[in-house]
Task: structure prediction
Amino acid sequence: MSEHEFKAKDGRIVRFTVTDFDPMEGLAGRAPSAPSAPSASQPQAPAIPHPAAEETASRRADDAYLITRVIEDYRRNDGFRGQAWNELNHRLWTYAYNTLRGKIKTGEITELVARVAAPGRSVHLQPDDADVLRTSPDERAALAIDTILRAIPDFQFHAILRRRWDPERGAQLTTYFLNTCALHFRRAYEQWSLNRRGRIERHALSYGVDANDIPHQLRRHPSLFQSEDPRLEIALDCLKREGETIRLIFALRLEGQTYAEIGAALGLSASAVESRFRRYSRNVRSWIDSAPGGDAA
Result:
């Protein structure tokens, strides 16, 4: 271990400790040799600080200085206002917004929440919700923004005013804030999911479709009611196995809704709605063909 110091970008002296390393260690076919003791007349070469450690220490020093400026502005302005907070706020929003959208799209957000949340406070994305969040940039953006809005006051109070963020250890400011967002994601997701389902149900009811009882309603639909085709039962049975989204798409298509109109209600693009409808149709055809007496014609 050795002590080092360097100048930060604003001229401040930053001191830190790093683990010295041997650049020859680990070369193939050669074992690292034991260092020889220096003689009294031979000075030791200065230790070389690890570049990554230098960069990390520099960022944390800059973060600590920015937090100091934010607190000074807070006391002077009686609130989070001023150039320092605007600078920090912009940095937090930029990092969290881009990172959250990516993790929401891939589903990795559930892993992040599981790492930072208390036991029993993890989150599970419903299949329909995960499908919408994977394909809809607008829905991902809306969920990410609500998550950040919930996290900002928490970060202001705990990380800044109560000094929970410590530049001497732990995460950088942006990482600390992302973890704060993860703690608030579950509530944001639950509210987003509830709002989305309410929007869908209101849209469906305006066309006389009960989202909770679609297969039963389809049996009474004028275009299907008098059908004696035995494949209808297979199609409806297939529909029961699908998620809520495809059931609504199928029911609303029977009511004459276009893919674009359905997509606007579900938070999907018209092409995404059409893709789901065609996928369901292929599944129906496959089950009909595999059923006893099935006929592909």
